[in-house]
Amino acid sequence: MTAEEIVRVRHADWERLERLVTFGGKKRGHLDAAEIVELSNLYRAACADAARVRGAGADDGTVAYLDGLLSRAHNELYRAPPPKKGTFAAFVARGFPQAVRRNRVFVLVSAAAFFGPFLFGAVAAIVLPRFASSVLGREELEMFRQMYQHVVDQGRSAGGGSVSVSFYIQHNTSIAFQVFANGIFAGLGSLLMLVYQGLDIGTVFGFLIGDEKTRQILTFTCGHSAWELTAIVLAGAGGLKMGWALVETGGRTRLSSLRAAGPELLRLIGGAALMLAVAASIEGLWSPSPVPPLGKYVFAGLQVLIVSNYLTLIGRDANEPLPRSGAFRLFERVGLGPFALAAVRLGELSGRVRFRRRPPEVAT
Hints:
- 34% of the residues are buried.
- This protein is mainly alpha-helical.
- The radius of gyration is 28 Å and the shape is elongated.
- Helix 1 (3-23) runs antiparallel to helix 2 (33-55) and helix 2 packs antiparallel against helix 3 (60-78).
- The protein has helices at 3-23, 33-55, 60-78, 87-102, 104-127, 131-136, 138-154, 162-181, 188-210, 217-247, 254-285, 293-313, 327-333, 337-357.
């Protein structure tokens, strides 16, 4: 067939494809299941038509028209679906905590790599007078001493500590994302960053605890630490998962493997960012306040319970049976079993509501 004959025979289908791409289906701007199937068939046929008209020596105008039409049809077929109402709430209630539990191996490795050096640095800085200066240097230690002494002495009510609070928020946010981004180096970058930052933060913390002028820093940091340090660990878990996707590709290219892991990485780092936002709010509004130390310690204990219950219990469904060991048994022993069960039931309720609203899948 000549190029003119191909255009004459196939032009009606091209026009139908253009209408679907430009105006949508029966409901303007929206395609139903049958129209999506029709769009897919017309797109594949038009791809073959483009090759045929080129081989038949069609003019440049026809070739350019088909190329443009195919590009638009491809974008319509393979574009990301628009965000649905309630997606953010579903992410908070189910997506993020479920992602943490699915990637518990990476989370546990990240926690060990961070909290191990953290505890070592804190204890060593308290017990060994010269340890902190050998790790950080005297000038940096003096900077931290002056900054946090100002926070402890002035408090929020006197307007002091605003500069140090801003620095602390920015510092820990940057740590979390640096830890995650370094996972691109086969996960080793995240692992090294976790060890380094754990040792660095732990050493500073131990040094300030061991200094009489800044010993009350514990009352400043305890309220937001559960959110902030957990966020750093989860960012590290995301970095480790990213590195593992580049090492264990499952027979795919490294780029394809990384793309496949992308949604889970977004859940982990997105949830970590939300936890950092909560930590920043607590740090800016509560931590420097003149509340008595006992009140701050009680508040800190509640934050630990909230974070641990949220990540281990919220969002469970029929595929995730109730845990009967570990954290759950600990809650039961200290009399918090009903609170843990209530958290689980709330997660199950959110799961049922979300399931009922989910549209039926279309078989293609």
